[in-house]
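Rotation project, supervised by the postdoc (A.L.). Task for the rotation student: set up a whole-complex structure prediction and record inputs and outputs verbatim in this book. Inputs entered:
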Amino acid sequence: MYPKKLRCEYLADPLCIDVPAPRLFWILESGKEKKPGSFQAAYRVIVSSSKEKLTKGEGDLWDSGKVESPETTHVAYAGKPLQSRQQCFWKVKAWDDGGNESRWEDCEVGSWQMGLLEKGDWHARWIGAPAREPRKIKVVDTTKPEPVEIAAPDPSPILRKAFTIAGKLARAMLYSTALGEYEVTINGQRAGDDLLQPEWTDYTKRVQYQVHDVTGLLRPGENVIGAMLADGWYMGLLGPGDAVRQRFYGTNRRLLAQLVVELADGQLVDIVTDGSWKLLENGPVQASDHFRGEDYDARLEQPGWDAPGFDASKWIPAAVDDSVKANLVAQKNEPVRVFATLEPVAMHEQVPGRWIFDLGQNMVGWCEVELGGAAGQKVTLRHGEMLELDGSLHVDNLRLAAQVDTFVLDGKGERWFHPRFTFHGFRYVEVSGLAGPATAGMLAGKAFSSDPPVAGSFECSNPKLNQLWSNVLWTQRDNIASVPTDCPQRNERMGWMGDAQVFAQTGIYNMDMAAFYSKFTADMRDGQKPEGMYPDFAPHPFPPGSFAMSFGPGWADCGIIVPWRVFTSYGDKRLLEENYESMKSYVDLIVDENPKYLWNTWGSNYGDWLNGDTLKAKGYPAKGGEMPKDAYATAFYALSSGLLARIARVIGKYDDAAKYGEVRNRVVAAFNETYVEKDGKIKGDTQAGYAIALGFGLLSDEIQALAVDHLLGAIKKYKGRLSTGFISTPHMMLELSRRGHLEQAYKFAENEEFPGWLYTIKNGATTVWERWDGFVAGRGFQDKGMNSFCHYSIGAVGEWLYRVVLGINFDEEEPGMKHAIIAPRPGGTLAWAKGSYDSIRGKISSSWKREGATTTYRVEIPPNVRATIDLIVPKGVDISVDGKTLGQAEGQGHFDARGGRVRFDVGSGSHEVVVKGA
Ligand code: BGC
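Outputs recorded:
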């Protein structure tokens, strides 16, 4: 057994850590011996200031010594205080429970670097173009009768600074950020491959800076650092529906950059943004905006502008702006970058001169396109998620977000172009303005998102469910550019928290979301009002003191639910501590405003959004799907106060744990008194009501059984169809599955008519639709103002695929997968299923296969993880575990057979369970 996959603050070899005691992580790999059931008994971490010292085993920064502990996650650095820009190299060795010690040579080297920790470490000044009055233009909003006025984005200024390196170079690190969006180049090459930097935060509270190692881009003698600035979230169009804003956070784009060059003799040279930088206001990027797209004019390119030897004598000095007061923080999360290139799968000329390319996948990003033609010729790319029946691009659902890129050519031959400071949600691209016919090879989609590693896999014998899994993962990728958004195409793209909380667990199974959600919890805190209200989306671009779109049950509660999910999935206690005061003030506010323990005073209340009552279908009940909003809100009151009590207990605040536990008990009592009848009927008699009450644990044992019957009744009322909204659907799937109605859950999952996931797949969906009936053959598109084809909310069924079909479950009492509960539940039409989850303690795999009366389960558990296998089997069947009859196999903790259910413990390694006669 030896440690591998070394990470710091959840990231592989990060360059900007700004916490004083960074946490270290590793996983354990079985050695050749593959000894089953191994545990880590002790570890030793060595942190050195250089690779050489580390190789020699000199932990000059920290040597933990041998620590008797099974811990492999969140091991907090406890060595010498770390300085700004400190380089730290580390390795770890482990002892297993048999006393075997891993060899240092088998451990890869991990590293991290500290960011600029003190304000005084920054010598750079904010620079940019002189302020200009914006020009107004009128643009189309597809949901409005008249064009609307917006400010035309200014051209992106380009900035440059030439400097000389005299001496031998050892290392060069670039610390940079912007108000707006930026790209930096050194000698004509991009520093890093991150996009949409510095990402979206509430810039009035925090601005993230990025760090790049640019040693390889510099050379002795003259060098040039160049930059471009654009509007981004800081100044560009932003916001949902009628709350669209522009220039919300500020009216001037600004750049801050500090290039720290370390020479071989130890000398440090800082190249910083200041008044000595040169600026050209009218760069080739003529306008860019996340919603609208980008306009590029190749005729305005300045060949060689960001390389030595360029004559910038006609450029103006950059304006220095010392009025900027930004709180700079190191970027916590994986950057946004391209993760896939999609080649067109089809193309057609829809009307003469208008070519439609199909990329085969609804994606987020932009296209790279090879263009040639006369100087001044303009090529236009429009982006949409769907096609109309006549084969033209469907753009009705975009509202104000036109997603149009234009390229004006310079007549100097064919070249590849792409936009920089925008992103689109699309599968189809319409290209017009070409000099000749389009060719398939001239265009490719570059899909990008924040880039946490993919953590999950899923496959089964129903190909449509496999497509569903793929659609859920794609929809996640399409909605995590810096913040978890509802959708990536129309003017919305907000960090809607109802969607985020309901999808969080699926998100965690699919990808390693720890760093991403750590940033998001800070965004939610930044959006919280002093009174304690969490917003309904974060960041929350409203002026201070505005309570608009805040304090919505099921949305604002995300402020508690997401930290809890991060804790149970990754074991992150520090995140709970960081968010504790904020969570507490939120629950206190609910209590203050609703002292009778029924949540009646809320901010917004969207209820169980997109429930059955919003469906437009013949023969489908027009009413009766929506859980009444008061009961729904009170259920969240109970959930949040109950979670807060558990969180308080985890972080050792026992008085608070008792206090909020009591609040929860009172809310549960009030819920039952007010909304639950003696026979178990819940106000509204909706599928959603039962799903939520059962899922949130609001009912007594006796009432639970009755409520399950009512749930089945409510399903019958809908002729076996769903009527739940996106908040309650995942709870219904899980509750049916664990309460003896697995087959009903499988029926929902495999149903190919709407409302049902596979209906969308039958209709060619490659991402999850916002609405079950987003498009219906014969009827057409749903409400164009709200009809996204890339919304992850109802994709929260992913949690069911992992937890029920594969059976990979967390144990909330032993967070961070110290203990896994493997409870696969074969069902529906499936003959087999297999998949895995890369947990924070290593990869867990689970598969099963049904052949005649025999079901074979295979499970793989990483070292240092205990697992309980939990199966439903008819009484009297033969069960063998790893070739031995259950109950006799060695190393099994306990064997418990009750009512057809067997549970037994296994240690790490591969296990095979064969159930015969099932
Ligand atoms: C979004 C949703 C969101 C909702 C709030 C919508 O416009 O797209 O997914 O949660 O507003 O009700």
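Student's summary: The pocket of beta-D-glucopyranose is lined by residues 240, 486-487, 492, 496, 498-499, 606, 609, 786, 791, 793 (CB under 6 Å).
Supervisor addendum: Residues 889-893 have pLDDT under 50 and may be disordered.
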